[in-house]
Write the structure tokens for this entry.
Amino acid sequence: MRKQAGVTLMELLIAVTLVALLSVGLLFAMRVGLNAMDRSNDRLMGNRKVVSVERILEEEVAGIMPITAICSADGEGPPAKIAFFQGEAETMRFASSYSMQEGARGYPTILEYQVIPGEDNVGVRLVVNESLYTGPRSAGASCSGGIFRPVLIGPMSFVLADKLAYCRLSYREPLPPPDLSRWVLRWNKQFLPNAIRVEMAPLHPDRARLQLQTLTIPVHVTRLPMERYDF
């Protein structure tokens, strides 16, 4: 009788087991690789967000405009004309030639910054409102009787920085020698500060990522908003 070649059931089970083990190993290797790629992408996006927040703040302050606002009358008094700049520890208003939506090529924009509590009252976040500036009366819509109204937070407010341990705004006031300058938390002058400081720190620091940190942004505009230059 002619001999016939073949495999036994045991050999078949061993082959199937080896193929299954190889498939499981490849699956775990792919999973580890995909998880590493997701973590890298998440870290890269976080770093880009930090860089973009700092760039936006620097560009908006660099484009600050020395304008005036005609505030609506308070009671029976006449409208008040003031320098349009509000500076407090958690609130800031000014007009800028730079906006997040149109960059430096758009129309002048009124910017309103406000520090508010974070999600579930954990930490804080920095939000900003943007509206079109069309003249002193459009700027005066945010004040009454020479006093600025509170910043209103709504669906159109943009969260510029989130999950912060703290966020404080301060303003550098020029002084005569020998002091030269000082930092204040409230600006009530009729001219612009020569620098703005935004103090920020992340709620959960991570050394593997870029972290939001304190920014000191110089104001290069020296024109006085309340002075006339049309000689």
Helices lie at 9-62, 136-139. The chain has a mean pLDDT of 87.
